[in-house]
Amino acid sequence: MAYKFIDNYREQGARKRLVEVLRKKGIEDERVLTAIGKVPRHYFFDETFWNQAYKDIAFPIGAGQTISQPYTVAYQTELLHIRKGDKVLEIGTGCGYQTCVLMEVGAKVFTIERQEKLYERTIQVLPYMGYKPKFFLGDGSIGIASDAPYDKIIVTAGAPTVPDLLLKQLNIGGILVIPVGDEKSQKMVTVLKTSENDYERHVLDTFRFVPLVGDRAW
């Protein structure tokens, strides 16, 4: 696949138009919209498909995975209510687009991916773009206990349930955002950890993600 890292007026203008699309769809957090407007999403596409990069759609990226729809990325990021310096665990690095958006809104990101081909590409591309999260290769469904606790956790794949190990890795007052359902569709769920053993859950809109695969998932 051929990739070129060029960001000119055409791409920058396309991002501005995408931001307006997301604003009209209900994304209100200006920091999130600014992040979407800054991250060059076309960098994650073979140049043959650059014309798809700023449409509000998901798109295949290989290894049976997709780059998430920009609306979905913005929606999940908004739900996290990230404050500058928050320690965020991302389950499912994928191509790294969501990672970049999280970092643009001020998060310190720890990100894990189980697909080795995606991992190998992402650990090269993101630092080249100026983003340097802490990368891990492995089973995201069990989290990364060695660096816990986290202020926020985001899961970018559909799970059958909320993995208990992820809840244990949240700080008190922390938020987990995860799509939960079957392999065809999921409801976005937010979990607020109110004490060491108590949680407040909210079930929101319906989405469709690739399955979360692992010991505590499919």
TrEMBL record:
The active site is at residue 68. Its EC number is 2.1.1.77. Coiled coil: none annotated. It comes from the Bacteria. It is found in: Cytoplasm. Keywords: Cytoplasm, Methyltransferase, S-adenosyl-L-methionine, Transferase. SUPFAM superfamilies: S-adenosyl-L-methionine-dependent methyltransferases. Signal peptide: none annotated. Belongs to the methyltransferase superfamily. L-isoaspartyl/D-aspartyl protein methyltransferase family. This is Protein-L-isoaspartate O-methyltransferase. It comes from Mucilaginibacter pankratovii.
